């Protein structure tokens, strides 16, 4: 399968190029960066020692030409534009980008009527398994167990809560049979008053080089249960994304997630 990588100079972009080169049945066919980026127009191999013969494009249509799938860990506006370009070109789109708004997701849904799209705030096996556990625990425990979600990431992360924290919050809300939008408590500061019963709280730590850590805390009467995940290597996310790209081969159009890919 021929795979193009968007945001190729980024932390995940570089991991993705390596993961494509290491994967059986995958070949790098294109690389995309934002317009004005210093890498545009250059041979990828001269820049990072991988991807010989691939020239970095800033035009989405050019970058995905000849690709079967594009893997995209960039920024919301870039991802929405790339989804439209993929739908026009009939190229599958694997999306790791987080911080997407409801409008962004609606635009991606629209593209998913024409092509296979896999989107997940976290491409690791561990986090996708954790969502099932969180849903189950939330369904088993009553409202006297308060749910709080902690996430920690490196100082360069630009969105909060993390995509993973939102996935875990959605799983907890599903378990309780409620809509996360109705119960999420994303900012506490000053005289907040007592905790709202049934709220799901979010807390974001940003610092240093932390790759990604998530805790879901169920704080109940006389006991606290915590479900945790720690990512130790970004390669984890890149390998999951390439697995998702390979999975799209021959797939019907639709907006899928990693639970579909992993068969969980
Ligand atoms: N789902 C998952 O498993 C994971 C998701 N992520 C998410 O992936 C995203 C990227 O993370 P990370 O790699 O750390 O961030 P980086 O900032 O290191 O990389 C993003 C890259 O995308 C580039 N970019 C921005 N706009 C465009 C555009 N219009 N066209 C092409 N490229 C563009 C950036 O270029 P420039 O720097 O010049 O702006 C940069 O090279 C984030 O949303 C993050 O949350 C991260 C890890 C795992
Ligand atoms: O920006 C990151 O780095 C990460 N982003 C994803 C998120 O928002 O959850 C996944 C992972 O935690 C790393």
What characteristics describe this protein?
NADP binding; Dihydrodipicolinate Reductase, domain 2; binds NADPH dihydro-nicotinamide-adenine-dinucleotide phosphate; 2 domains; 5-stranded mixed β-sheet; NADP; binds the ligand O=C(O)C1=N[C@H](C(=O)O)C[C@H](O)C1; single chain; 7-stranded parallel β-sheet; Rossmann fold; 37% helix; NAD(P)-bd_dom_sf
Explain this structure.
The chain is α/β, with parallel strands linked by helices and 264 residues long. It folds into two domains: 2-123 and 234-262, 3-Layer(aba) Sandwich (Rossmann fold), CATH 3.40.50.720; 125-230, Dihydrodipicolinate Reductase, domain 2. 37% of the residues lie in helices and 23% in strands. The strands form two sheets. Strands 3-2-1-4-5-6-12 form a seven-stranded parallel β-sheet, with helices on both faces. It has a five-stranded mixed β-sheet with strand order 8-9-7-10-11. Strand 10 (213-220) and strand 11 form a beta hairpin. The protein is elongated and about 60 Å long. The relative contact order is 0.16. The model has no long low-confidence stretch (mean pLDDT 97). The structure holds NADPH dihydro-nicotinamide-adenine-dinucleotide phosphate and ligand LZUJQKHR. The active site is at residues 153, 157. InterPro entries: DapB_C, DapB_N, DapB_N_CS, DHDPR_bac, NAD(P)-bd_dom_sf. Its EC number is 1.17.1.8.
